[in-house]
Design goal:
This protein has 302 residues and is of the alpha/beta class. It is built from 12 helices and 9 strands.
Length: 302
C-alpha cells in the first residue's frame, strides 16, 4: 500500500516509473486495450473545495480501471460538521479501498494516512498539488521527448503549484527558476530543498530573469481557492508577473507554456499566449486522467 501525500515522499525512480505507467495507460486507452486492473476496488473522493478536472479525471479514471469512484462532498459528509478526520479515516478504511482528498490543510491529508489503513491520494491542498505536477511532467516529456537537462520556469505565487513543481522538476533532472514577488515566496523548507540541487534551482524577483532560456513556462492564478477575499491585494502584488509575449521573447525556441487551469486571461497569462499554447495546455489537462490512473494503480497495488 502506498500513499501520495506530497511529491517529496516519492523518489525520482518512483516518479519516473509513474510517468512510464501513465504513458502506457494512455496508449492502451487510446487503442482500446482493456486495463481493468482495479476491478472491484472503490475510491472515495472527498472534496472540500471546487473541482472540474480532478473530480472528472479521477471518476473516469477509476471507472476505466474497472473500479468504482464514490464522490463524497464535504457538504454532505459529517466531516463538514466537524467530525474529526481521524475518525473519518478509520470508518472509511472499513468500507472502501482508497481515498482521494482535496482540502485546505496538508495536515488533514497526513492525518487520514496516519489513522486510516488504505491508500490516501492528495488531490490538492493549500500546500501542494502532486497529481497535477505528475501530469505536467508527463506532458513535458511527451512534447520534448525528455525531462533531463530542460529548464522549467514558474512565474507567480509561491503556492501549491510552485511547491510541487520545484520538487517534481528537480527530482526528474530538470532545472527550475521561479519568480515571485517579495512576501510570496514558497515555504523556507521548499527553498532549502531547491538549494540542495545547487544551481539547478533559482528564486528570482524579476520574471524575465527566471524565464531566460526556459524550455517550459508555467503559471497559476494569483489568488488560489480560499484566498478570494485577498484578490484585490494580490492583483496589486502580482502586477508584472504575467506570462506575455515580452516574457516569452527571452525563452528558448519552441518553449512550451503550461497552466494547471482554471486560467485568468489578462491576469497571470495573456489570452494571446494562452491560445498560442492551447494544444499543450489541454493535453496537460487530459494527462491528469492518465497520470492519476498510474497513481491509482501504484497506490492500490504496491
Ligand atoms: N487543475 C485542477 O486541479 O483543476 P480542478 O480545480 O478543476 O480540479
Ligand atoms: N493554486 C490553485 C490551483 C488550482 C488547480 C488553487 O489552489 O486554487
Amino acid at each position: 500500500m502506498k500513499h501520495l501525500l506530497k511529491l517529496e515522499d516519492w523518489s525520482s525512480e518512483e516518479i519516473l516509473a509513474t510517468l512510464d505507467l501513465a504513458d502506457k495507460l494512455k496508449y492502451e486507452q487510446k487503442n482500446g486495450i482493456e486495463h481493468k486492473v482495479l476491478k472491484g476496488k472503490t475510491l472515495g473522493m472527498i472534496f472540500e473545495k471546487s473541482s472540474t478536472r480532478t473530480r472528472v479525471s479521477f471518476e473516469v479514471g477509476m471507472t476505466q480501471l474497472g473500479g468504482y469512484p464514490l464522490f463524497l462532498s464535504s457538504n454532505d459528509l459529517q466531516i463538514g460538521r466537524g467530525e474529526p478526520v481521524q475518525d473519518t479515516a478509520r470508518v472509511l478504511s472499513r468500507f472502501i479501498d482508497g481515498i482521494m482528498i482535496r482540502t485546505f490543510e496538508q495536515s488533514e491529508v497526513e492525518a487520514l494516512a496516519e489513522y486510516g489503513s488504505i491508500p490516501i491520494i492528495n488531490g490538492l491542498t493549500d500546500y501542494c498539488h502532486p497529481c497535477q505536477v505528475l501530469a505536467d511532467l508527463q506532458t513535458i516529456r511527451e512534447f520534448k521527448g525528455k525531462l533531463e537537462g530542460l529548464k522549467m520556469c514558474f512565474i507567480g505565487d509561491g503556492n501549491n503549484m510552485m511547491n510541487s513543481l520545484i520538487v517534481g522538476a528537480l527530482r526528474t533532472g530538470m532545472s527550475i527558476s521561479v519568480a515571485c514577488p517579495e512576501g510570496y515566496n514558497p515555504p523556507e523548507h521548499i527553498i532549502e530543498f531547491g538549494k540542495s540541487f545547487g544551481d539547478k534551482f533559482e528564486l528570482c524577483r524579476k520574471p524575465l530573469d527566471a524565464a531566460k532560456n526556459a524550455d517550459v513556462v508555467l503559471t497559476d492564478v494569483w489568488a488560489s481557492m480560499g484566498q478570494e477575499e485577498e484578490k484585490k491585494i494580490r492583483e496589486k502584488a502580482f502586477e508584472g508577473y504575467q506570462v506575455n509575449d515580452e516574457l516569452m521573447a527571452v525563452t528558448n525556441d519552441e518553449c512550451m507554456v503550461l497552466h494547471c487551469l482554471p486560467a485568468h486571461r489578462g491576469e497571470e497569462i495573456t489570452a494571446e499566449v494562452f491560445e498560442a499554447h492551447a494544444n499543450e495546455i489541454f493535453e496537460e489537462a487530459e494527462n491528469r486522467l492518465h497520470a492519476q490512473k498510474a497513481v491509482l494503480v501504484k497506490c492500490f497495488t504496491e
